[in-house]
Amino acid sequence: MTPAPTYALSDGHEIPAIGFGTYPLKGEDGIAAIVSAIEVGYRLLDTAVNYENETEVGEAIRRSGVPREELFVTSKLPGRHHGYDDAIASVQGSLERLGLEQLDLHLIHWPNPSVGQYVEAWRALVECQRRGWLRSVGVSNFTVEHLAAIVEDTAVAPVVNQVELHPRFPQPEMREAHARLGIVTEAWSPMGKRRAPLEEPAVVAAAERLGVTPGQVVLRWHVQLGSLPIPKSSSRERQAANLDVFSFELTDDEVASISALAEPDGRLFGGDPDSHEEM
Ligand SMILES: NC(=O)c1ccc[n+]([C@@H]2O[C@H](COP(=O)([O-])OP(=O)(O)OC[C@H]3O[C@@H](n4cnc5c(N)ncnc54)[C@H](OP(=O)(O)O)[C@@H]3O)[C@@H](O)[C@H]2O)c1
Questions:
Q1: What's the rounded Cα separation, in Å, for the pair 138 and 149?
Q2: In ligand 1, which atom is closest to the CA atom of 192?
Q3: Are 186 and 163 in contact (CB under 8 A)?
């Protein structure tokens, strides 16, 4: 398998070009699935306070035997911890549950604009970075306006914005904005979950031409867009296939025909980050 390359982050660190999503893996089965993902070769793990599985992720890291410095661990600050002191305590809680001294990346999970404390939360993450608890800091589900507000306040730009992105919802404007701002686009629900286009002719035809699975075609589409996907799978076989997307290439026409699967209501959540909030 050709190993995943890395992207350079704007703060000088690097991030693997594909990661493993850990929601909703919990308990012993969850630990086993995460250990399996590390064994098949994932180096980026994506968790969150709200997934209630940071303990499992930490345990899986230790059981895997892979040295800590070879892994890139991301967690996320929940909406209910946006107050400055709450956010600092929340990061400490994440580190304790994970059993780590430092997170490679911590994200504000949702801007929760109706609460209106995401700028304060960002100041707290920047302080945690200064203290050495967080190597890099980023956000999730931020719009261009939210990004502008935190950069104006702190002069610190997030290295990553993790957003919903899949063939039904390819987010060209958001990707362009990220490129302009030097922010890596990370894609959650990269397959599109219940809307996964795995039987769409555009995806199936490319899979047949290349001798790969439809899931691999969708993840390769992300790679060629410059989007960093974090697929979740409980199956070791699908985990391995999902990671193996760096040894073949879609044509420009194939990429365009998969992007053309976009739908006006393609978003998995009915609302958008301005209306959907995660506490
Ligand atoms: N920041 C946010 O607000 C946010 C929101 C949602 C998710 N996330 C993160 O993003 C990660 C991924 O998102 P997600 O789990 O919603 O969606 P996803 O990774 O796009 O899809 C996961 C689903 O697809 C199936 N699957 C995986 N690989 C497959 C393949 N090759 N062929 C067919 N089916 C396949 C999995 O089933 P099996 O397990 O049976 O393989 C699972 O049901 C989460 O785990 C989480 O870390 C973040």
A1: 14
A2: 20
A3: yes
CA of 194 to the centre of ligand 1 (A): 10
CA dist 136 and 118 (Å) reads 17
Atom of ligand 1 nearest to the CA of 241: 31
Q: For residue 261, which of 174, 199, 175, 185 has the smallest C-alpha distance?
A: 199
Which residues participate in catalysis according to the annotation? 51
Neighbours of 3 (CB within 10 A): 13
Whether the bond into 24 is cis, omega within 30 of 0: yes
What ligand 1 atom has the least distance to the C-alpha of 213? 31
pLDDT digits (tens, 9 = 90+) for 231-260: 999 999 999 999 999 999 999 999 999 999
26 within ligand 1 shell (Cβ under 6 A)? no
| Residue 149 CA, ligand 1 centroid: distance in Å | 30
* Distance in Å from the first CA to the final CA of the chain: 39
Structure tokens at 37: 């993902």
Could you tell me where the beta strands, DSSP code E, fall in 165-239? 184-188, 227-229
pLDDT over 70 for what percent of the chain? 96
Taking only the tens place, the pLDDT of each residue in 162-201 is: 999 999 999 999 999 999 999 999 999 999 998 999 999 9
**How far is ligand 1, taken at its centre, from the CA of residue 102, in Å?**
26
